[in-house]
Automatic annotation (TrEMBL):
Organism: Petrolisthes cinctipes (Flat porcelain crab)
Keyword annotations from UniProtKB, A to Z: Signal
Pfam family, one: Lectin_C
Domain C-type lectin: 28-154
Signal peptide (UniProt feature, chain positions): 1-18
Record protein name field: C-type lectin domain-containing protein
Length: 160
């Protein structure tokens, strides 16, 4: 390899690894997330979305790349974050859960806690919560959209 191509290779590696996240966002893998708990801010699901959008982001979505989701979940467990809103709801049509980017939520996903979502038409927004019981893992629940929780914004998510 010539010196010039070697330099080019180094530059390329630096560009791939050098994800620069905006202020207030933490890098996890190649994505940038805003964890509102770091700033002591809890809100309703709608208000959380509005705030994320003011930061050129939206509530985090899962499942486009499973590795991204795995990294995010490991990060949340490591940082010991409390329950938080993520970007899925069945507000438009009961029992039809969609991510805010328009993709349907995989209802067979292991991310849903046992029997969730199970709370009906007044619980239409998705919460990510650590379950400390027998199944010690992060799982999705349906929550009441108007309740206040922490939330996680993902930079570059575009809503439909
Ligand atoms: Ca439930
Ligand atoms: Ca519902």
């Amino acid at each position: 390899m010539g010196f010039k191509s070697f330099l080019l290779l180094l530059t390329t590696i630096a560009a791939v690894q050098g994800v620069t996240c905006p202020n207030y966002f933490d890098q996890v893998g190649e994505n940038c997330y805003y964890f509102s708990q770091d700033y002591g801010d809890s809100r309703s699901w709608d208000s959380a979305r509005t705030y994320c959008q003011s930061l050129e982001s939206d509530l985090a979505v899962f499942g486009i790349d499973c590795a991204d989701t795995d990294r995010l979940i490991k990060h949340i467990i490591r940082e010991d974050y409390a329950t938080m809103w993520v970007g899925a709801s069945d507000e438009a049509q009961e029992n039809f859960w969609v991510w805010i980017d328009g993709r349907p939520v995989d209802m067979k996903s292991k991310l849903w806690y046992y029997n969730e979502p199970d709370s009906g038409s007044s619980y239409d927004c998705a919460l990510l919560r650590f379950n400390s019981g027998v199944h010690r893992r992060l799982t999705l629940y349906d929550g009441s959209c108007s309740s206040s929780y922490y939330y996680v914004c993902e930079y570059g998510v575009h809503s439909k």
